[in-house]
Specification:
Blueprint (H helix, E strand, L loop, with lengths): L4 E2 L20 H14 L4 E3 L9 E5 L11 H9 L1 E13 L3 E7 L2 E10 L2 E7 L5 E7 H14 L10 H15 L9 E2 L8
Parallel strand pairs: 1-9
Antiparallel strand pairs: 2-3, 3-4, 4-7, 5-6, 7-8
Length: 196
Amino acid sequence: MILPIVAYGDPVLKKMGKDITKEYPNLNELIENMYETMDGAFGVGLAAPQIGLPIRLFIVDTSPFAEDDVWTPEEQKELKEFKRTFINAKITKEEGDEWAFNEGCLSIPDVREDVFRQPIITIEYLDENFEKQVETFDGLIARVIQHEYDHIEGILFTDKLSVLKKRLIKGKLTNISKGKISVDYRMRFPNQKKKR
């Protein structure tokens, strides 16, 4: 089932996500719905806060990036095959020189900005079977994970922009929160005027 994606301005996007247990209600169905929602919106990642749930759960599928010929054949293969579910994740290490990449977010449509992040991360998480994993990722996969991880920490990519950049996009962000934007996927806007 495709769920509505919560737009910028909703308080749930600023909440620190809570850990969940195996007994979380309808967890498998929720994960399935999240993948369907992400695919329907042509996203590469989706975090539970983006569908209104303040829990530590996010998914990543970098296959759409594999079409891009800026990557080497090895990188394309890796991007094409990378699809993961992260539960109760904790990034334990970030290393390397920061690099910029133009990021966007399904909760903040039509806003793309360069964000600086470190290229290598080590992350501990539980997979969909609640088995503990500890892995190190780099490059674009690391970046997508960092972006989604920020969501469960209550951080948006716009929080990482300079004061000037934030000022320049303020009007756009206000319009997004009011639903004054056209998107081709279901969204829920926090400050939309109710139709009479």
